[in-house]
Amino acid sequence: MDVRLNDTLQMKKKHPCGNDKFTVLRIGMDFKIKCTNCQREVMLPRLACEKNIKKIIREEE
């Protein structure tokens, strides 16, 4: 899956705050993503994160 820094990910499952969009902060074996609503940061294993992605919204350069 082609995920880049600063992409916005729409996830299948929602964050406890009710939002389903996250910004990518770090890519590697783990993904560090930040909720666009409450600004909380979450570290997820790469496989779990890629499995949960519904849509990738690219930042226009």
Features of the shown structure:
61 residues, 5 strands, 5-stranded antiparallel β-sheet, single chain, mainly beta
Uncertain runs are none
What is the CA-CA span between the terminal residues? 20 Å
Strand content: 35-45%
Alpha-beta classification = mainly beta
Q: What about the largest sheet?
A: 5 strands, antiparallel
- What is the overall silhouette? globular
How are the strands of the biggest sheet laid out side by side?
4-3-2-1-5
Description:
- This protein has 61 residues and is mostly beta strands.
- It is built from one helix and five strands.
- It has a five-stranded antiparallel sheet with strand order 4-3-2-1-5, covered by helices on one side.
- Strand 3 and strand 4 (41-45) form a beta hairpin.
Give the topology, please.
Elements (H helix, E strand, L loop, with lengths): L7 E4 L9 E6 L3 E6 L5 E5 H7 E5 L4
Antiparallel strand pairs: 1-2, 1-5, 2-3, 3-4
In short:
This protein has 61 residues and is mainly β.
